[in-house]
What does this fold into?
Amino acid sequence: MSELAGWLAILVAGLVVTIELAAWTLVLSIALSSLIAMMSISPLAPLRGFARLYVDVFRSIPILALAISVYYGLGETLTSLGITPFGTAVGVLTVIESAYLAELYRGSLESIRRAQWDAASSVGLGWLATVRHVILPQSLPPAIPVTLNMAIAIIKDSSLVSLIAVSEITLVANQLIAETFKPIQVYGLVAILYLLLILPLSQASRLIEIAVARRLGIRPRTDEERAMRRLSAVGDVKAG
Amino acid sequence: MYRSRLRLALGVVLVLVTTACGSSTNGNTSSSTIQGMIKTITPGVLTIATYGSALPLMKVGPGANEIGGLSGGWANAFAQDFGLQVKLFQTTFSSTLLAVQQGKADLGEPVYYNPTRAKTYYYTYPVDLESLVVFTKKSFSYSGPSSLQGHKVATVTGYVWTPYFQKFFGSNLQLYTTQADAATAFKNGQAEAYLDADLNYFNAPLSLSTDISLHPVASGDFGIPADIIANESYWIVNCNEKALANAMNLERDNLEASGKWKTILAQDGAPAGTPQSSPPLMTPAEGC
It folds into this structure.
C-alpha cells in the first residue's frame, strides 16, 4: 500500500506538470486560433491566404517531429532566449493545436447563415461590427464544446513532449517503470489519473454548453431534437 | 568442422553448467534452436535490445542489424558460433529493460548491476567498467555537487543513479530518454551539466570536445553510494533464460582463451586513446 502511495505521489507530481502544460497551451491556442479563424473569414484575400497556409502547414507536421527539431535544432538559440523545455513544449503544442482549433472555429463562424451577414450589412454594420455583434454571439455556444474537446486532445498530446525533458506524467511514469519493472501497474495508474482528469472535463463541456446557451437566450437542442433535425435534413436532400 | 565441434563442446558444457546451477529454462515464449540447448524468442535469431551506441562498449549500426564495440564483438562471435542471426530491437534505455523483461528480446545491451534489477534479470560476465562523471563546459566553475545546485542538469531516465539525482536536484533535473538527447541538450547549453558514464565523452555528440571538462564523482556525492559510482556493464537476459547467459559466458571464456578477445578490443571502433578495461570474468550476485 505504501508502495502504491509512493507511486501515486510521483505520478501526481507529473500530472500537475501535465495540467500546467495543457492549461497554458489551451489559453494560448484559443487566442491564436481565434485570430486565425477570423483571418480565414476576412474579406481580405491575403489574410485568408495566410490563415489557409498556417492551417495546412501546421496540421501536416507531427507534434513529435516539431518538438524534437525545435528543441534540439534550435537549442542554443532557445537557451540564449532563456526558453525552458516547458516553454518550448507550450510553444510547439500551441502552434500545432491552434491549426486544428482554428478550423473548428472557422466552421463555427461559417455555420451562421449568409442572411445574417446581409441583414447586418443592411443596417449599416461593418465587417468587424457584424462579427462582434451578430456572428460571435451565435457561434460562441457551439465553439465551447469543441474547445473543451481540444482541451482533452491537448492533455493527451502533451505526453509527446516527454521526449524534450518536460517532466510530465509520461516521462515520470517511464522513470518509475525503469525502477520498478512494473509497466502494467504504473501505466494502469497513469490511465486512471488521465480518466480522473478528462471525464470531468467532458461533463463540464456539456454543462457549459447549456449555461452559455441559456445566457444567450438559446435553448440547447435535446438529443431527440438533434436526431429529428438530422432525419429532416436527410429527407430534404432526398426530396431535392 | 572446427565450428561444429565448438558448438557441440559449448552445448555439452552448457548443459553441465545449467544443471550445476540448478537453473531452469522455461521456454514459455521460446523455440528450440541449436541442439535444443539454448532457446531464443525466434528460432535461429538472437534478438538484442539496444539503446544506442556508447563506444567502446557498444556500436549500433550502420546496418539495421549490425553491432560492434566490445559487447557487439562478443555477441557477434556468440551468434556466429551458435548459428544465430543477430536482429536488433532498437529502443530507449528504459524500454531495453522492459523488452528483455517481457520476452521481446533475448539479450539487453549491457547495463549496470543493482540488486533490484538482479531480481528481474540474469547477468552475464561484465563487458567493461565505467564510472559516473559530471560533464561541464570548461567555462563552468565546478567545485563539487553543491556547485551544481540551482543549475539545470541533464541525465537519462532509467539509470541506476537517476533516483539519487532526482532527490538531489529536484525540478532542476532534466530527464532525457537517450544519451544522445541528453548530451545534445548539454552541448546546446540547455543544461549546464550532464551526468553520465565517462565513456560518453568519446561518443557523439560530445566526441572528445575540447571545451568540456570531466569531473570524477566521489563516494557520497549526490547521495550516491560508492558501490554504484563505478559500474561494470553486463549483458542481461530474462530470468527464465539463464542458459543463454551461461552460454554467453562460455563464449566469453572461449574468446579469452583463444586470444580473440584481444582482436575485439583492437577493433572496438572507439577513438584512439579511449580507455579500455576488461574486468575479471565473474558474474555478480544473481537475484533470479
Observations:
- The interface with chain A takes residues 93-94, 97-98, 101-102, 116-117, 120, 154, 157-159, 162-163, 166, 171, 174-177, 181, 184-185, 187-190 of chain B (CB under 8 Å).
- The domain at 130-228 of chain B is CATH 3.40.190.10 (D-Maltodextrin-Binding Protein; domain 2).
- The two ends of chain B are 37 Å apart (CA to CA).
- Residues 34 and 82 of chain B are 6 Å apart (CA to CA).
